[in-house]
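Good morning N.,

You mentioned wanting to compare the apo and holo forms, so I went ahead and generated the holo version with guanosine-5'-diphosphate. This is what I fed in:
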Amino acid sequence: MTDEIASDPDLIEQGRKLFLRPCVFVAGAMSASQLPDATLPEVAFAGRSNVGKSSLINALTNQKALAKTSQTPGRTRQLNFFDCGGVVQLVDLPGYGYAKAPKSDVKAWTKLTLSFLKGRTTLKRVMLLIDSRRGIGDKDREIMTLFDQSAVAWAVVLTKIDKLSQREQEEAIAKAQTEAARHVAAWPGVFVISAEKRIGLDEIREHIIALT
Ligand SMILES: Nc1nc2c(ncn2[C@@H]2O[C@H](COP(=O)(O)OP(=O)(O)O)[C@@H](O)[C@H]2O)c(=O)[nH]1
Ligand SMILES: [Mg+2]
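and this is what came out, ligand included:
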């Protein structure tokens, strides 16, 4: 996490405790009628396919396969909802930017995802995951613009930081920081994580609890 985000020990502790409570799969929605009721505050996870969304949700919730159990092949276009302790709902959004997908992929990122982002009153934040090795790409930029236009509050999370050297990390963070700062709807800092090495998870948990 970069300096723009101040960390508070009490909130860190509360965030940790939140995710010691059970997190359970609530719904996998492929149409508006399948969306669960908008009651709890929600934090959604977006990003290219393979960026590490499911791994982050599993790491945050201290579970090995929570986010994967709901991912039956061929149903990757669904929005998956997880209730954590009856306090907050995490939403695993469909990935975008498959290598083999047509150029219109971001546009076709499903009507459902877009209408969810625009109309969900309980949605507090979208965490936009960026693979730290690739950096922010054109497809990510399209999504950032969409978030801005939809008045969605979002934050950048650099994933798989364990794959970079110290110097590469610093470069990746500085670049992402500069780019996020250009967007009014973006959180003015960058979260840096490794789901594998369990780095940066407390800061994300803190961010989530602060939104509830
Ligand atoms: N080295 C490393 N690999 C990771 C990390 N997080 C995810 N991965 C790997 O990246 C791949 C895609 O992860 P996944 O969570 O399924 O991505 P999703 O498609 O965005 O849900 C898997 O092979 C993961 O093991 C990380 O923090 N470090
Ligand atoms: Mg996934």
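The two ends are 20 Å apart (CA to CA).

Happy to go through it together on a call whenever suits you.

Best,
F.
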